[in-house]
Amino acid sequence: MSSATSSTLDWDNLSWDSLGDERLLVIVLMVAAVVLTGERTTWRVLRNVVTIAHEGGHAVAALVMGRELAGIKLHSDTSGVTLSRGKPRGPGMIFTALAGYPAPSLLGVGLAALVGLDRIQWLLWIVVALLAILLTQIRNAFGLLTVVATGAAAVAVIIWGNERTTLGFACAVTWLLLIGGLRAVIELQRSRRAQGSGSRGGPPVTSDADQLAWLSHIPGLFWVVVFFAVSLVSIVAGGWLMLSWNP
């Protein structure tokens, strides 16, 4: 009769070889991201991370175009608003409005590249740094709570996480931005269809796509297609980069 301890795994000394190909982890987390963003309850929580990236995209674009950033608010219904001062129309406002929906996907590609280069610690510190910068522009209590909680999770992984934990967390965040970015675009079009789109006078307030339509005189559906294409290409590119992980 074999002893009970003879079949016990030594978890502290497990290596990637004993666990199997690390690429399997990337695939498993991709499936998890699809499932969790597809389920209404979990998506309502996770979407806050996508909203942080979305509003951060607006903020960066506003600064790049020389607009004065007036603050960011994140709401409990997972919506957000980025306020900036400058000309109400023109290229600066168009670029600012355009930057929101692609931001989570493009950030996800950047993080995926760091995963592929085995720069996991860099990735986590970059996330913390971006959240710290964003925190200076938050103008409401829920927004402060959301950004601080997200940053605290990343810091906790940096301090206490082992190699497997940090890689898993990094891949999970990256997939959330990539898959969640696409889910947000799909929701955008569903909302436009349900509420009616376009504007017959003043500037629209319903969505970024309709605001872009008013600013550019190009139909809102065109901008939704652009957002969708960027998100889809980003998922493919991000997945390829993460699957090329080579420690």
Can you tell me about this structure?
This protein is mainly alpha-helical. The chain has helices at residues 16-19, 22-38, 40-64, 91-98, 102-116, 120-135, 141-160, 163-195, 208-216, 220-243; strands at 68-74, 80-85. Helix 4 (91-98) packs antiparallel against helix 9, helix 5 (102-116) runs antiparallel to helix 8 (163-195) and helix 5 runs parallel beside helix 10 (220-243). Strands 1-2 form a two-stranded antiparallel sheet. Helix content is 69%, strand content 5%. The protein starts with 15 loop residues before the first helix and ends with a helix. It has one domain (20-189, 200-243). Strand 1 and strand 2 form a beta hairpin.
SSE pattern, N- to C-terminal: HHHEEHHHHHHH
| Estimated radius of gyration | 20 Å
Provide the helix percentage: 55-70%
Number of helices: 10
Instruction: Give a count of the beta strands, DSSP E runs of length 2 or more.
Output: 2
Please give the domain count: 1
Kindly estimate the percentage of residues that lie in beta strands according to DSSP. 5-15%
Order of strands, widest sheet: 1-2
Assign an overall shape.
globular
